[in-house]
Amino acid sequence: MFKSLKKMFGKNPDGMPATDAPAKQFDMEAFHMNDIKVYALSTCIHCRNAKKYLDECGVKYECVHVDQLTGDERKQIVNEVKEYNPAVSFPTIVIKDKVIVGFHKDQIDAALKED
Question: How many domains does one find in the chain?
Fold first, then answer.
């Protein structure tokens, strides 16, 4: 059934574009958890999709759900996000020295390929 849905609508049941190609693999040795940080909201579908894609790529990352923080910790993290993304929109993904605002597979792929 899912194959027919893919053909008809070009999307998987989770709303992601349909593809039969395996997830791209990257040199996992080149990345450590502190090289990739995802600032996200726990309720954001784009954040969820970005994290799912990073999981599929096989890289480790640190995720901070900003909406689940409180007090000074939340203020500190929001200020941290502002340094990368003054609009403070989510997801904000930092891969080494590259900043990606939103869920953009092509930008994530490019940042992961750089070493």
Answer: 1
